[in-house]
Amino acid sequence: MAAHSKTEKATPKKRDEARKKGQVAKSADLNGASVMLAGLFALAVGGGAIAGRLQHAMTEALGQVSDPSVVDRHGIGDLLMGALTDTGLAVAPVAGACLAAGLLASVIQVGFKPSLRAAAPDPKRINPLSGLKQILGPNALVEGGKSIVKVAVVSGIVAIALVPTLPQMGSLVGMTPPQLASQLVSTIMGIAQRAAIAYLVIGVADVAWQKRRHEKSLRMDKQEVKEEQKQQQLPAEVRMAIRRRQASAARARMMGAVPEADVVVTNPTHFSVALKYDGKKAAPEVVAKGQDVLALRIREIAREHGVPVVPDPPLARSLHRSVEVGRQIPEELFAGVAQVLAYVYRVAGRRSAA
Fold first, then answer.
1. Which of 14, 59, 97, 179 is the most buried (most CB within 10 A)?
2. How many CB atoms lie within 10 A of CB 42?
């Protein structure tokens, strides 16, 4: 289906299906800006208390180390545990504020509707070839341009805030450590706040971009909309009967295609996937697949018609999980399927020569 033919807005049903898969319009930049602002706010409010707790923890640690009786295996363990506990309690308010801000930003963007299906592990997410497509695809160019703009804008904001203060740096010489620390913290916090606000503006703009991109990806063609409307107008019992009839017809067509397959790849006890490659298409095509009883029937039909049955559990599971009937195999499975087909062709060649 050509991309330009998808001119209709997505229906509520398609939006709901996309959401269940985790496909939502969400800006990571807005989340990052929200977390950064929350962290800076927490530091501004509780920075003195955090510094005091850390100072107390360090004083206690140095005091204990000065006692020779503490410097043994158990004493060092207690010392480290106490230091870690004090440090954790010191940074807990900042971490909590950042966590709450990140969750709130996500809820504002997509609502509070967690999807277990989206959180489920997916081998495609860690596939190197899929990752390479993401890196080299057109979306990567857009994201790269956005990153350059973000760095340029934030760097400009920091430069504008920092350059006027450079002449004043000389006056810091001779200050006491507490005074110097206070002055530096004030300067750094001011620069960080300006950068965070600029980042927030970028995040808001990115939300609009992500929504536009998401809407475009969900567009449907007119035929898809008509089919969905027909399905929605029918009573539930009729829709179920139609689906059962369609599934039965599809299963019959699938079984009828098994004798024409070049090979059936199996996980001997659970999965069977029939493949056909006629050289006219860019890649082999899955003409039938099934699990358990259906897989057994596919193997029986294949053996009845002399179609080679090759056990390859990892490949069979991957094909069954990721490729629908009537679809060509994806690039990441080319190597495995090519090895199976080459083996089948070698065996067939030896038999014909004999």
1. 97
2. 21
